[in-house]
């Protein structure tokens, strides 16, 4: 169910009941958008719980986006708890609309699992978007990542660089 928008505030709630009643889910979220000092500020959050026979699965996310002219800044935090998982993540991003169809941006995020000592993941990158024509956008993304498996994590540690070219078409 979504509440009707009220002065920049929107909210919603969802509930799913499983047939056996063992994995019912409830999620809710809210968002508020306002203007201040010539900027648009949006604050949002969401939370969800799924009942589970061994341990409930819980997640929470919160973020803020500030747009001032051609500059956008986003800060976010999230958490996830489940059987053998207790992850916390933080991220930040900034973009600048240069005009003439080009936007540049940079981002970073870090995540760690407190149940698996030393398990961490981080990623940082840059991106350029260019609108070639109406409905056609080229995107170039380059990022560095590092995964540390930790003492209880599965898999092995890894790090590297990814480069990606995407051509988006919309009709």
Summarize the structure in words.
The chain has a ten-stranded antiparallel β-sheet with strand order 1-2-3-4-5-6-7-8-9-10, with no helix packed on it. The model has no long low-confidence stretch (mean pLDDT 92). The protein has strands spanning 9-16, 25-36, 39-50, 57-68, 71-82, 85-99, 102-113, 120-133, 136-148, 158-169. It is mainly β and 171 residues long. 0% of the residues lie in helices and 71% in strands. The protein is built from no helices and ten strands.
The secondary-structure class comes to: mainly beta
The main sheet orders its strands as: 1-2-3-4-5-6-7-8-9-10
Query: What coarse outline follows from CA principal-axis ratios?
Result: globular
Query: Count of DSSP helices?
Result: 0
Distance N terminus to C terminus? 30 Å
What is the H-and-E element order? EEEEEEEEEE
Largest sheet: 10 strands, antiparallel
Specify the oligomeric state. single chain
Give the tally of β-strands: 10
Q: What is the percentage of strand-forming residues?
A: over 45%
Rg calc = 20 Å
Helix share, percent: under 10%
Write the SSE topology:
Layout: E1 9-16, E2 25-36, E3 39-50, E4 57-68, E5 71-82, E6 85-99, E7 102-113, E8 120-133, E9 136-148, E10 158-169
Antiparallel strand pairs: 1-2, 2-3, 3-4, 4-5, 5-6, 6-7, 7-8, 8-9, 9-10
